[in-house]
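Archive entry. Fields below.
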Amino acid sequence: MLAAVAAALMGLAIVFAFFVAPEDADQGISQRIFYFHVPIALTAYAAFGWGAFKGLLLLWRKEERYDLESYVAIHQGTIFGSLTLLTGSIWAKASWGHWWLWSENQLVLFLVLFLFYSAYFMLRFSIEEGPRRANISAVYALFGVVLIPVSFLAIRLAENIIHPTVFTRDGPQMSGIMFLTFCIAWVAMSVLAYALYRLELLGKRLDSNLRELREALS
Amino acid sequence: MSQAEYVAAAYGVVFVALLVYVAIIAAKLARLERETAALAELARDRRADV
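PREDICTED_STRUCTURE:
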């Protein structure tokens, strides 16, 4: 059901992005990447935040299930993070003529956040399975959450930027229909990410239960 | 590359990545289904032995 809603919303988002939203006067057709690039980036932030929250719950309540939930959320965040970097690079090449600019704080800080959470997997799988691994992974996930607001606000803190600032204190700097398209794409991406999170979690829990069953029967 | 090709590339990357992700999850669920069936058979054999 959730997957069907996600698929329908994604279809609607694509229709709005390509056929309903008007073409941007400055950037032309390449601006249409915005409708997927920004929701994907926001979903990555949300997934990393959710993973850190689940890590906090693990440390607080000492319930084993939060470890798997935190891990799956961070895995989702890394997938959406890599898609943010890829779509962002393509958009940068189309708009600025460069695949990547090291002088842009927004880009570099997002890369730092992405690499930080990529290292989470190296740390996690270098420790033997058990409460120790769960606790260390949770603490690491919590440390990373500090980078999320820094990365998010970097665009406003930077002085020399060419990365566009669309959302300012005066509201979204785009027409009503463009903002509606963005909102539809954002909801679609969030529902899709949640559906994938549930699916991956289901698979991991099944795998874990089957492993226990196998050990009990052997 | 034209601007339209860059847009197609960006959306294509997202589509392919999601497709690969779903295919990996589907393959994993299929493996788990096979393992569940094998364990159920093992449990039935055990019950028959008892």
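CURATOR_NOTE: The interface with chain B takes residues 14, 28-30, 32-33, 36-37, 40, 79, 82-83, 86-87, 90-91, 93-94, 192, 196, 199-200, 203, 206-207, 210, 213-214, 217 of chain A (CB under 8 Å).
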